[in-house]
């Protein structure tokens, strides 16, 4: 176990790996709408399984099973998350959540750690396939990220967002670690990128052969979470919630449902759409436009909203986890990078993501964690981002 147990003494994990040489690949380009998952080698071999990491406990809140996953910066924290859920291809499969010597992880997903819009929809796509690593928008890819790619040895890398989000120069530094190809899921703007990501995710699920008959099941996404593309406050837990709901996260403006978002919703035809946030961030007009595009009874449209980002996270948790959750994730409600990187792990571990103040949690967050009855609570980021008190659910 690489996580830092808060009940034990010791320094925050320092990650250092040996960089391995990997053959170079062609320069990356944009993923055309007709190419999607097949050309990237993406495939979920089975329905995503929620895995317990330790022996399950029964308690209203854990007595001492509180953990921190962190690094000295956002890039290292994302690597630390990756190291928790992904085994190298030389590690025994029995010890792995993803990867290992039997079914190595073939695809690593990458998004900008400098801005949130294109990365919001990345977590649900990555869940069950590989980690989500963060890189700068331009400049030099951190050594720790390169080392993690060398450890995993993927065949493919998928970048979320265009060259404005992750530059061509950054992509060229990633290319040597993707011998079978590197590509982008990118639209003309954040709304198109999120819609394209959802369409890729839908195709991945449709290509599943869960019944083992040798043919794709053709069962797509069950849930789409629709959040404001103008801010990250309400969407911090949206990626993890979608990953736990056979779902994806799409974006909208406050008053108008973007054409790309509507078109993707109509194509996917989810059973449920969760509108995230109050009418001050996603208007009733947008909600009504979704209902018109996806009429009942085939699709149920609900809104998860509260008076602030904390109460919205509570409403979302109650919507997605009505009977509880095996784990609670705690992220800083005013800081996006660590929450982005946690989304794939939320899907793997069945975690509900709740947001905190940097040094404590509102009473409502504590009460929701108590209701969820988790076996574990895990916080993301260093103590400068999230204190021990916040992770152990000390109220403000």
Proportion of residues in extended strands: 15-25%
Order of strands across the main sheet: 1-3-16-14-15
N-to-C span: 30 Å
Unreliable sequence segments: 7-41, 43-59
What kind of sheet is the major sheet? 5 strands, mixed
Helix tally equals: 13
Got a strand count? 16
Radius of gyration: 19 Å
What is the typical, i.e. mean, pLDDT?
A: 86
The arrangement of helices and strands along the chain is: EEHEHEEEHEHEHEHEHEHEHEHEHEHEH
Shape: globular
- Helix/strand/pairing class, anyone? alpha/beta
Name the helicity range: 25-40%
Domain count: the total is: 1
Verbal overview:
With 396 residues, the chain is α/β, with parallel strands linked by helices. It has one domain (4-28, 59-199, 217-391). 31% of the residues lie in helices and 18% in strands. The chain contains 13 helices and 16 strands. The chain has helices spanning 36-40, 74-85, 122-126, 143-152, 168-174, 190-206, 238-243, 259-268, 284-293, 309-320, 337-349, 363-372, 388-391; strands spanning 4-5, 29-30, 66-69, 86-87, 98-99, 107-112, 132-135, 156-160, 181-185, 223-228, 247-252, 272-276, 300-304, 327-332, 351-356, 376-380. The strands form 4 sheets. Strands 1-3-16-14-15 form a 5-stranded mixed β-sheet, sandwiched between helices. The chain has a 5-stranded parallel β-sheet with strand order 2-9-8-6-7. Strand 10 (223-228), helix 7 and strand 11 (247-252) form a beta-alpha-beta unit. Helix 2 runs parallel beside helix 11 (337-349) and helix 6 (190-206) packs parallel to helix 8.
């Amino acid at each position: 176990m690489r996580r830092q147990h808060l009940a034990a003494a010791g320094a925050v994990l320092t990650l250092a790996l040996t960089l391995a040489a990997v053959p170079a690949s062609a320069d990356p380009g944009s993923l055309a709408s007709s190419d999607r998952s097949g050309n990237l080698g993406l495939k979920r071999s089975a329905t995503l399984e929620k895995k317990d990491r330790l022996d399950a406990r029964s308690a209203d809140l854990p007595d001492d099973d509180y953990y921190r996953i962190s690094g000295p910066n956002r890039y290292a924290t994302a690597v630390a998350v990756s190291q928790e859920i992904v085994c190298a291809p030389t590690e025994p499969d029995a010890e792995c959540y993803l990867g290992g010597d039997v079914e190595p992880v073939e695809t690593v997903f990458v998004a900008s750690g400098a801005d949130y819009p294109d990365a919001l929809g990345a977590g649900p796509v990555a869940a069950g396939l590989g980690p989500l690593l963060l890189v700068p928008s331009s400049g030099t890819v951190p050594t720790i990220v390169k080392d993690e790619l060398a450890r995993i040895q993927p065949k493919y890398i998928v970048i979320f967002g265009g060259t404005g989000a992750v530059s061509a120069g950054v992509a060229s530094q990633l290319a040597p670690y993707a011998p079978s190809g590197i590509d982008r899921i990118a639209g003309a703007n954040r709304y198109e990128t999120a819609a394209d990501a959802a369409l890729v995710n839908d195709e991945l699920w449709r290509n599943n052969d869960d019944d083992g008959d040798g043919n794709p099941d053709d069962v797509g996404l069950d849930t789409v979470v629709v959040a404001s593309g103008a801010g990250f406050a309400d969407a911090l837990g949206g990626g993890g919630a979608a990953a736990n709901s056979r779902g994806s996260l799409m974006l909208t403006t406050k008053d108008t449902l973007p054409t790309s978002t509507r078109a993707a919703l109509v194509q996917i035809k989810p059973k449920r759409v969760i509108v995230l946030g109050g009418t001050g961030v996603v208007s009733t007009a947008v909600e009504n436009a979704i209902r018109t595009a996806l009429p009942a009874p085939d699709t149920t449209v609900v809104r998860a909203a509260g008076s602030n980002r904390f109460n919205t996270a509570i409403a979302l948790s109650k919507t997605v986890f009505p009977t509880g959750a095996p784990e609670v994730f705690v992220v800083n409600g005013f800081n996006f990078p660590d929450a982005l990187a946690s989304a794939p792990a939320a899907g793997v571990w069945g975690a509900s993501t709740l947001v905190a103040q940097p040094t404590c949690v509102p009473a409502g967050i504590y009460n929701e964690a108590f209701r969820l009855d988790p076996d574990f609570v895990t916080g993301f980021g260093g103590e400068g981002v999230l204190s021990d008190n916040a992770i152990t659910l000390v109220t403000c």
